[in-house]
Amino acid sequence: MINEPVINIKGVGDKLYQSLVGMDIRTINDLLFYFPNRYDNYEIKPLNQLVHNEKVTIEGEIIGEPSLTFYGRKKSRLVLNVQVEHMVVKGVMFNRAFAKKQLQAGEIVTLTGKWDQHRLQITISNYKKGRAKAEDPIQPIYPLKGDVTTRQLKKLISTALTQYSHEVVEILPDEYLESYKLPPRSEALKQMHYPANFQALKHAKRRFIYEEFLLFQLKMQLLRKRHKEATEGNSQAYDYRKVDHFISRLPFKLTDAQNKSLKEILKDLESPYRMNRLLQGDVGSGKTAVAAISLYASLTAGKQSALMVPTEILAEQHYQSFKELFEGYANVVLLTGSIKGKKRKEILAKIKSQEANIIVGTHALIQDEVLFSNLGTVIIDEQHRFGVNQRKTLRDKGIHPDVLFMTATPIPRTLAITTFGDMDVSQIDEMPLGRKEIETYWVKEQMLDRVLDFIAKEVEQGHQAYVICPLIEESDKLDIQNAVDLYHQLQANYEPNIKVGLMHGRLHSNEKEEVMRQYAQNQIQVLVSTTVVEVGVNVPNATVMVIYDAERFGLSQLHQLRGRVGRGESQSYCILLADPKGDVGKERMRIMTETINGFELSEQDLQLRGPGDFFGKKQSGLPEFKVGDMVHDYRALETARNDAQDIINAGWLQNNPNYSRLYKLLKQEVILNGETLD
Ligand code: ADP
Ligand code: MG
């Protein structure tokens, strides 16, 4: 049976079995579906079909004696001329002096290596005397771990294929295979391990990419449907008259996009289903306003509500603005890690007794000691900065609170349909009226003096500036040293006329508060800061954002930083100081100066950096696909999503026998993840 442990295969002893388990190969099925991560090509192609910089294999006759030169300590370079077709190709091999004896004039050799089209030269990584064998020109390369060797693995897979591949059943209904021209499952499986040619391999991969995406999408959508149908959620009967009154008191009129999102959220609150919604909107599009109204709505239903944000600065800022906003409407409290002792006890008691009905905080909110009394709604800002578990813990604190996630890092469509396939999405795709477009410039770091003059001019006109200090990779401590140095430098340059402030993550929270307060009141004009001001900070009088080492930030992060200005009526500027070395870096700076739309930027960022980097590694919560690549295979992902929607809407999994195998597999996988489907 294909689901037997892999130890049942002949040749697998205890030791090998342990190593295989280390590679997540437990069953024979796991072994069969352990795919190569790349393929080496030993196919011999005519010279005119070789591609520059790719690994190629050529075959020809050695002309003249190869020449060997030594340099440095123990380093050597062997050069041989080989006649291929009617051309002479140069072969270069490093540090394998011994090969000279074997490669003599007149010999026929097969050489594999990197091809340089311009010089007609190959950098040899592999050579073989004689002609290449016709069989197996495509060599699969498997990812290995522990002491398992390629030979061992190949042998096991070959045995497993012979003995068990008849048990590999088709799971996709025929019409999908036909309309997408996908090879049958067991045939595709063989091709993945023993490709007949690159064409067949391509189709086999296409099949498994589609299969993988379809299974994933079905899973996500089934779970989402189930969450919706669970009637145990809370139905919050908010008072729409009170909510309307609250809105009418705001100093501005909501945009259409804000109204639409708000309506979707309020509908979720009222419904017995549990809200699981993502609110997306570019920086400054007015998400916080929508969040505040939603929190208030929950309060009119007699519930508590909470806003969780990623940094203390932000919590403090929201708390201050909410205190004003909710004056006479709600009792707002702040809870962060640095609130301690008696004050903390008091706040915890207020939360527990529901005397506090709107709670703003950092992840301090999810600690065990925090007991909510009647949590109706939870809003999580900049959700990608929280780990999956943190979100879940908070959700679990209420009975079944409605949860809204907010993000100003616009999530590319690609990621949205994978990461958030199980969520509803609202989008604020319109900016409040009267905002001026921020002008973005990219300058070399040697132009700093002119940038400083520019800041001084803006300050003369009553405005303020941020200067984000240079970044030193992965080291918070050094970054702070940098900030301090820059702070002294700017102080020397500007004071006493212009006051310079300093902000970084290691300041005591009282100090942070004080600096932010002074900046908000224009007692500080130039704020030197690390990226702690990246999200949410709102000082509308600031009109200049200067970012050192801009090439080292992700585009979405630069966009966030840029979003700190342009929040008031005056023209604002973002100046990127950067000396990028490579083309990609230059391209990124160019994109920043040309694109102001956050969604467009994030798409481009994703293209340039790949999905793993997009949210930062650990907290990404992104699914890992074995064969598919979310960015590269985006079209397949979209197709799979649409197909999954059709299948679920029609109820085919449960009702149509053609889908029963698919359903069975799906149920197995979901159970493995600790959930059940029916
Ligand atoms: P976000 O959270 O999406 O970055 P905010 O809610 O912080 O945006 O809004 C940015 C600024 O715009 C705030 O100063 C806010 O008061 C203001 N604002 C929000 N909605 C509107 C609106 N409809 N019209 C005018 N200004 C608005
Ligand atoms: Mg915000």
From TrEMBL:
<dbReference type="Pfam" id="PF19833">
    <property type="entry name" value="RecG_dom3_C"/>
</dbReference>
<dbReference type="InterPro" id="IPR047112">
    <property type="entry name" value="RecG/Mfd"/>
</dbReference>
<keyword id="KW-0378">Hydrolase</keyword>
<keyword id="KW-0067">ATP-binding</keyword>
<dbReference type="InterPro" id="IPR011545">
    <property type="entry name" value="DEAD/DEAH_box_helicase_dom"/>
</dbReference>
<dbReference type="InterPro" id="IPR004609">
    <property type="entry name" value="ATP-dep_DNA_helicase_RecG"/>
</dbReference>
<keyword id="KW-0227">DNA damage</keyword>
<dbReference type="GO" id="GO:0003678">
    <property type="term" value="F:DNA helicase activity"/>
</dbReference>
<protein>
    <recommendedName>
        <fullName>ATP-dependent DNA helicase RecG</fullName>
        <ecNumber>5.6.2.4</ecNumber>
    </recommendedName>
</protein>
<dbReference type="InterPro" id="IPR027417">
    <property type="entry name" value="P-loop_NTPase"/>
</dbReference>
<dbReference type="Pfam" id="PF00270">
    <property type="entry name" value="DEAD"/>
</dbReference>
<dbReference type="InterPro" id="IPR033454">
    <property type="entry name" value="RecG_wedge"/>
</dbReference>
<dbReference type="GO" id="GO:0016787">
    <property type="term" value="F:hydrolase activity"/>
</dbReference>
<comment type="similarity">
    <text>Belongs to the helicase family. RecG subfamily.</text>
</comment>
<dbReference type="InterPro" id="IPR014001">
    <property type="entry name" value="Helicase_ATP-bd"/>
</dbReference>
<dbReference type="Pfam" id="PF17191">
    <property type="entry name" value="RecG_wedge"/>
</dbReference>
<dbReference type="InterPro" id="IPR045562">
    <property type="entry name" value="RecG_dom3_C"/>
</dbReference>
<dbReference type="InterPro" id="IPR001650">
    <property type="entry name" value="Helicase_C-like"/>
</dbReference>
<dbReference type="Pfam" id="PF00271">
    <property type="entry name" value="Helicase_C"/>
</dbReference>
<keyword id="KW-0347">Helicase</keyword>
<comment type="function">
    <text>Plays a critical role in recombination and DNA repair. Helps process Holliday junction intermediates to mature products by catalyzing branch migration. Has replication fork regression activity, unwinds stalled or blocked replication forks to make a HJ that can be resolved. Has a DNA unwinding activity characteristic of a DNA helicase with 3'-5' polarity.</text>
</comment>
<keyword id="KW-0238">DNA-binding</keyword>
<dbReference type="InterPro" id="IPR012340">
    <property type="entry name" value="NA-bd_OB-fold"/>
</dbReference>
<keyword id="KW-0547">Nucleotide-binding</keyword>
<keyword id="KW-0234">DNA repair</keyword>
<keyword id="KW-0413">Isomerase</keyword>
<feature type="domain" description="Helicase C-terminal">
    <location>
        <begin position="447"/>
        <end position="607"/>
    </location>
</feature>
<feature type="domain" description="Helicase ATP-binding">
    <location>
        <begin position="268"/>
        <end position="428"/>
    </location>
</feature>
<keyword id="KW-0233">DNA recombination</keyword>
